[in-house]
Write a structure and sequence with these properties.
Blueprint: H1 2-24, H2 28-37, H3 42-60, H4 72-96, H5 104-115, H6 131-146, H7 148-155, H8 164-170, H9 184-209, H10 213-224, H11 242-256, H12 259-268, H13 272-276, H14 278-300, H15 307-322, H16 339-346, H17 362-380, E1 389-390, E2 393-394, H18 397-423, H19 428-439, H20 458-472, H21 476-479, H22 484-487
Antiparallel strand pairs: 1-2
């Protein structure tokens, strides 16, 4: 039994070591930027690279000859361990850097927030930070957006490690088995080529809209990844440009639509494919309706006297908060009436499954609403067989049950974390919005966390780190390894 267990963990250890070695190379980019710009902190990333690479090698070397196809259980364990370990090692250069001068708690919080594409920050004075540190934050977003595990499964087969189990555990959304191409390696490659192409196009648009090259690339990373980190304390409001805001709106919407759908549109060369998809269509209708409502409230309240200004500001914040990106051009927490809470609650829905967004995903809310309507119909016609369909396809009851289970666990975890934050002395609004902004991978909240989370107690930051990981891995992926059934052989 012990030999079996050791062999089981050896396989996981080997994969974890390989993944850490791959991740370590990403620190070379900000190190080079530090040398090029000469504003310091190149050493912090150089040391971070050596520590991460060395740890990966130490994990891999003793078990390098172990060969076994990964099972689904292995995939869950690797994903959870890697995201936790990755967050810790991503914090190393931030902790070692002299600017910003932060402790381990804040460094880990910033790293977790970056990788989970949450965008909540504990840093201030962003405009004066070194380019290496700023770019590292954005690069964490970009890598976390599609999921470094999906990138790894395109490489690991060449190293003798199967990848389908990792892909299933990592990919967000209620349906895990859909593939764009017959081979998982080709699927991962297709996703990343698409992701890279959209990022490059977004950077070009930002640059043409007036950003400098560094800002254009940085904000392209955080826009497509729907992350929300910016190089400026005022976020995109720093640029004060309606053109840049429109470009960001388009980029955030693109990042919020399933990348499988993008692939299908590219392959069919028919943009109408977006509208034919029920989830994408519902998402776009929700964005349009929320924008219209926010514009009316802002105009009636006199917050903006110009209709175009009210419309642009409304659309930007609706898209930014609704897609769980978290960019800001104005302090939406000061908007009148119910708008701030309305936008925050919208982040619980998020974007489409298979996108880079957080939240529970639009498709789950479609299924929940259809199930509610079906139960009403069953009260009237008890013996009727009423199937639930999306885009003309019948959804199995097992999927409906899984969605209800996900919803129940999501709300339960939210309530528990909300109560923990209340126990630290935070106000109800601050605690509620901090947990919502974290578990939905949104970023900015309301109350004391409307601009940043630097003032939160240490225990609250660690709780929110767990909330961000739970949100990024869609709750079950992380909680499943805590189940006794998971560890039974």
């Amino acid at each position: 039994m012990r030999l079996q267990l050791n062999y089981y963990f050896a396989v996981v250890q080997r994969v974890l070591g390989l993944l850490l070695m791959i991740f370590s190379t990403s620190m070379l980019i900000p190190m080079i930027l530090g040398l090029v710009y000469g504003d310091g902190e190149a050493d912090a990333f150089g040391i971070g690279f050596l520590i991460t690479l060395g740890t990966g090698v130490l994990l891999w070397l003793p078990v390098r000859h172990v060969r076994r196809e990964l099972k689904i259980r292995d995939g869950f364990l690797v994903v959870v361990l890697f995201w936790m370990v990755l967050s810790l090692f991503g914090a190393v250069p931030l902790y070692l850097a002299t600017r910003p001068d932060i402790g381990i708690t804040d460094a880990v919080f910033e790293s977790v927030s970056g990788l989970t594409t949450t965008g909540a920050t504990v840093l201030t004075g962003l405009d004066t930070l070194p380019h290496a540190v700023l770019f590292w934050r954005q690069l964490l977003h970009w890598m976390g957006g599609m999921g470094i595990i999906v990138l790894a499964v395109a490489v690991l087969p060449m190293l003798g490690v199967g990848g389908m189990q990792l892909y299933r555990a990592e990919t967000p959304g209620p349906v895990k088995d859909s593939k764009l191409t017959p081979r998982i390696r080709e699927t991962a490659k297709a996703l990343w080529y698409l992701y890279l192409s959209l990022t490059a196009f977004c950077a070009l648009v930002f640059w043409l809209a007036g950003m400098n090259g560094f800002d254009a690339i940085s904000h392209a990373f955080s826009s497509i990844a729907t992350g929300g980190f910016s190089n400026h304390d005022l976020s995109l409001g720093h640029h004060d440009s309606a053109v840049i805001e429109l470009a960001a709106i388009i980029a955030m919407i693109v990042g919020s639509i399933s990348f499988s759908m993008h692939f299908m549109v590219w392959r069919s060369a028919n943009p109408l494919t977006y509208w034919k998809d029920a989830e994408t269509r519902t998402f776009l209708i929700m964005v349009a309706a929320a924008t219209l409502l926010a514009t009316v409230v802002l105009m009636v309240s006199g917050t903006y006297v110009s209709l175009p200004s009210a419309f642009i500001k409304s659309m930007f914040q609706v898209v930014s908060i609704g897609t769980t990106t978290g960019f800001t051009t104005t302090d939406y927490s000061l908007w009148p009436s119910f708008l701030p809470m309305f936008l925050l609650l919208g982040s619980f829905v998020g974007g489409c499954a298979g996108s880079t967004t957080g939240g529970m995903k639009v498709v789950r809310f479609i299924l929940l609403s259809k199930q509610g309507l079906r139960e009403i119909s069953r009260l009237i016609h008890p013996n009727a067989e009423i199937p639930i369909k999306i885009s003309g396809k019948v959804i199995p009851d097992r999927v409906i049950q899984a969605v209800w289970g996900f919803f129940a666990v999501y709300i339960t975890v939210f309530v528990v974390m909300f109560l923990i934050l209340l126990s630290t002395g935070l106000s109800e609004l601050t605690a509620f919005s901090a947990v919502a902004a974290s578990i939905n991978n949104l970023g900015p909240g309301l109350g004391e966390v409307s601009s940043n989370m630097a003032g939160l107690p240490g225990i609250a930051k660690w709780v929110l780190c767990m909330a961000m990981l739970l949100g990024r891995l869609e709750v079950f992926t992380l909680l499943v390894i805590l189940s006794p059934a998971f560890w039974r052989r």
